[in-house]
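Help wanted!
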Amino acid sequence: METLDAIRKRCSLKGHLSKRPVEREKVDIILEAARAAPSARNLQPWRFVVVRDEQTIDELASIAFTEPNRVVREGAVVIFICAREEDDVTREGKPYYLFDAGLAVENLLLAATDLGLVTHPILSFDETEARRILEIPGEYRVVLATPLSYPAEPSYDEAASARLNERIRKDLREITFYEKWGK
Amino acid sequence: METLDAIRKRCSLKGHLSKRPVEREKVDIILEAARAAPSARNLQPWRFVVVRDEQTIDELASIAFTEPNRVVREGAVVIFICAREEDDVTREGKPYYLFDAGLAVENLLLAATDLGLVTHPILSFDETEARRILEIPGEYRVVLATPLSYPAEPSYDEAASARLNERIRKDLREITFYEKWGK
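Answered by r_m:
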């Protein structure tokens, strides 16, 4: 898929997850994409926990998530993105481990879209419980979780079309200035 | 360009900037790509200041940057990405304005790559001076700056090949676990 199409078509589709198994090769392509992201001083603070085990996904959904995010239960795979502040630069109160995690996660989401897979980034979960279930060391923060699945519909485009039609974004003129702020 | 190619080819190329003007249409495509990123509760905390004025770029390079990042002076355009913590979610000490800015910036970098333009994300600058010169309100944080230029070489691939050959990333096995941390 063309880059700009993947960027336009990527959307959050938790209502469209199927349990069809996602091939390990596809998961690897997606993680390779995440890994290729830039980071402050190339520190690469990101870590990924890929959960495919049905029982673990169920446990996570029941304990670490609440409705409507318990829908992660319907994901064939759920990926957790973790990072440590101490593994990255913090400048004037800006901890760049979060920024760098965002760079990697966007690559992950776009690669999934490119492969026709659906995702849905979720930041609302019980981090302590997620850490306990997945045995994530205490100093790592769990930044995001996303299911990764084939769409319930025959194609990505069919899964995404309604959602993309109702997409709301601020006007470019509201978020962009030229030469100086406010212009 | 195919999505996975853009992800693989995107790299930081501050040594390869030309002053050839970048068309406004291309800047718009790149900002549209950034705008399409997801964000917590769709809050879209990102703001962009696009600097094309030669004198402003010179002033910024001299005052807000130090070597080797003064090379932004060679950019045809320099884009500053800003965001406010209060415009986004903060969960258990994780300010998601930085994460969401990362999602948008990766789209921006990939769209530039797709169009054959070079970028180089820089987080090391005097934020107070950048804010003063660009008249950015005090509560907005300047998260990142990147020059945006046509490559000095005839094509993006020629500009990027040496850099991509020396790319260093952690092994996928070092950053990925299956089912539980450490596995």
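OP: Thanks! One thing I noticed: The CA atoms of residues 64 and 126 of chain A lie 5 Å apart.
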